[in-house]
Design brief:
There is one protein chain. The chain is an alpha/beta fold and about 270 residues long. About 45% of the residues lie in helices and about 15% in strands. Bound molecules: adenosine-5'-diphosphate and magnesium ion.
Length: about 270
Amino acid sequence: MKKIAFYGKGGIGKSTTAANVSAALSERGLQVCQIGCDPKNDSTRLLLGHICRRTVLGMVRDKDNVTAEDIVHTGYHGIRCVEAGGPEPGVGCAGRGIIVALEKLRTLHALDDQDLILYDVLGDVVCGGFAVPIREGYASDIYIVSSGELMSLYAANNIAKGVQRFAVRGGVRLGGIIGNGRNTPREEEMLRDFARRLHTRLVAFVPRDIVVNKAENNRQTVLQYAPDSTQAQIYRDLAETLLINTDLTVPTPLSFEELEDLVAQYGA
Ligand code: ADP
Ligand code: MG
């Protein structure tokens, strides 16, 4: 079973990219499960066609004997969809929700027969809970979604620090950077440079495209909404790369000054 995680700054495009990759892999014949680890609970929205109403944390809170059927939902093309869930804003710890959710899935053996599990994790919180997929060996191949914006690179660099820390005692490795375009100057070139300095590579550059927003407005992935589009093919190619990538590394994070210099070098 392949265990992949997407990390990145909030709003950068993790869930959109994850859902399209899941759709591509499923269409290709793999049994895929996508697990949202973000209190937004919207990771699987494009696959389910609606916001997941039964999150793991919510079900554990409301019911005594939670079963796999309560928390693993079937979405587009048979993709298994799970949302870890989180506390109401302002109460409790969101990272804790991920710990409880992943432990629940493990004890229920809810995902034992999957070919690939894709964890979609919020990465700009420096809370131990969000590191759980990396720290506890749930995911082995980590990908960081980033644009060329400084704050996105800053989050990416912090995630790389987390991977570096846990790679020492575990098997977790960085598979690469997935560029998701925000139309910053020479963005793809800069992300390639950033990845190289992190001792990894840019595995794909997904351009900003209005078809993504149109598909989202229809609560669908681009693969479902516009299967013949260039954007759909870009997601298929990315999915293929993730499947065959064996070039996994221990990253070498940058200092904040180095990040600033990088942005200035390309953006000035
Ligand atoms: P995250 O999961 O990282 O918080 P989302 O996947 O929810 O981010 O994406 C945030 C917004 O950006 C969504 O409205 C999504 O449709 C949009 N988006 C993501 N990737 C692209 C893209 N390549 N082109 C256009 N819009 C995009
Ligand atoms: Mg998301």
